[in-house]
Predict the structure.
Amino acid sequence: MKTLFSCLFLVATTVAFLQAQENTAAKLWTPTDRQYTLDNMKRTRDELVKETQNLTPAQWAFHESADRWSIGEIVEHLALWEIIWNREISIGVRNKPTPELNATSRPDSYYHEFIMEEAKHTSPDFTKPTGFIDGRKNLTFFLQNHAINLAFIESTQADLRAHFEFTGTPNPRNMHQVLIFQWGHVDRHLRQIRKVKTHPNYPK
């Protein structure tokens, strides 16, 4: 009997190991993809901190013109988007995996080039900053939301190249590509912050 239980345990252990190996091998979202995402999320976060950590209240609130956002409003906008990205990805990974959609998905480079293009993008009303948050508190708002998203990327076991947005577009984005938009969006607005700082009337 002891020998039988030992054999059954060995078989069960072997099957579990093989299944785990199969699941790991089948994943389209690789450890390299995860590290690439983490590196860029941390890089853009750190650059945003560097660009804003020593600003005065006047510098946070400066507007190039009446129709342009201040640095404080730009960072508030980024913080709002961190909430939106979190919701979009959490919904996406609950969708049934559809890896076959990768056949009609655009390449990763398309999403990075789009988010970083020079052309003006129009923000949906629900992502526009209120301007009600004072200066550095906008950075705190961003960092708090960003940390939640970073922790998810560090720990998730979801195959982010097999889960797609629930969308009817002919070229749907997988969740890895949504994350390219996430950190690329911070890069885009870092460029905007640096432009604000070059304005001749920017407070010294």
DSSP finds seven helices and no strands in the chain. The two ends are 83 Å apart (CA to CA).
